[in-house]
Write the structure tokens for this entry.
Amino acid sequence: MNIKEYIQSGIIESYVLGLAEADERAELEQLRMQHPEIEAAILAFEQELEQSAVHNAVPVNPGIKANLFDQLGLKPDEEYIKTPEYPEVRPLESAGKTPFIKYLAAASVILFVISAAFNIYTYSKYKNLEAENRQLALQRDQLYANNTTIQTKLNELDQNMQLITGPNMLKVALSGVAGKESSNAVVYWNKTNKDVYLVAKALPKAPKGKQYQLWALMDGQPIDAGVLGDCNTVCKLKNIQNAQAFAITLENEGGSPTPNLEQLFVMGKI
């Protein structure tokens, strides 16, 4: 647990003000015994509240002292000396006629209002921090997910690069035919196990219902080498035992037993 982040989360203020949930209080009471920093933060906030109450206290009217002495039947400068005799017992005046009680009541109300306002401010601040923490957590999770996706793609690319640059790989460049000069692709043919891989570097996006198909040409006869799927970089197609050239045509989705030469895009000889 990051103690600094825990203290800054607003849980200390919520706990001291009595706004924390039961499980939050239980957790904090356990942590304050284990971590001196948390205990110090609790004491510091309690002192801050006390100092705020003192600072915002309503000054006592100077006339209260005189009124108090007058109610007690004393003179302000008179020294009160106790005697062995029982002092005279005076009945208390009613609350409505005692200015001192009125001032105490007014001060209490003011302190209560200040305390309530402070509680509301602190709770609002805590909720804002809580919302910010949730947003940061979502952003962190999103970044982590993006990083995982990128790392997966990098690993896949690294594996493909190692695959197509092996010593047994034969590279065959396929160039665009007349009218489709901007199209090109590369075939990698493993001379040992006869596996065929394709990198479609620059082929137009296949229309809906259509799919590109690779052909191996041997003695003028086309051999189906497979259709291009949803591979991002290197596509593994069918195993081809012998070939003198490779070509790609645009066929109906799912492939065709024979190539549509009117939709021939690229071709390259070995």
